[in-house]
Amino acid sequence: MKLRTYIVEDNATIRENLIGTLEELASVEPVGFAETEDEGKVWLKERSGQWDLAIVDLFLRQGSGLGVLEACRERSPGQKMVVLSNYATPDIRMRCAQLGVDAVFDKSNEIDALVDYCVAHSRG
After folding, report:
1. Is domain 3-122 in CATH 3.40.190.10, yes or no?
2. Which of 113, 103, 86 is closest to 25 using CA atoms?
3. How far apart are CA 100 and CA 39, in angstroms?
4. Domain locations in the chain?
5. 27, exposed or middle or buried, with CB in 10 Å at 0-12, 13-18, 19+?
């Protein structure tokens, strides 16, 4: 099963590299992306049946990934929210857990762990 994945990331290079890596290694099907908090919230809520996984950066061109996470707290049980950030500190991880995030990955050294997560989730 392809994991329908929505990405909230304002850095085009990081986003494109991430999509390429996940398509190649983790049977991910990108269904869209946002560069701002508002775009991410609107898309994820209006298309609630069209995604399985959202990968969210915390620091965005406008707003914060935390706002996107907050807006998606009422998602269906099968939908996963993960954070991919350069700031995966213990405090950030705790705040994300409070918002119901399924996992937090550090951009600098946990991309492999994100790929593994996607592979495991795509197998159901």
Report:
1. no
2. 113
3. 20
4. 3-122
5. middle
Q: What is the pLDDT of residue 122?
A: 86
Six token digits for residue 64: 């914060």
Would you state the pLDDT for residue 79? 96
Q: What percent of the chain has pLDDT over 70?
A: 99
pTM above 0.85, yes or no: yes
33-60 residues labelled b (16+ CB within 10 A) or e (exposed): bbbbbebbbebbeeeeeebbbbbbbbeb
Give the DSSP letter of residue 58. S
Of the listed ranges 5-14, 89-98, 115-124, the least confidently predicted one is 115-124
Task: Give me the DSSP letters along 45-57.
Answer: HHTTTS-SEEEE-
The three-class DSSP label of residue 103 is strand
* Residue 69 main-chain phi, psi, to 5 deg: -60, -45
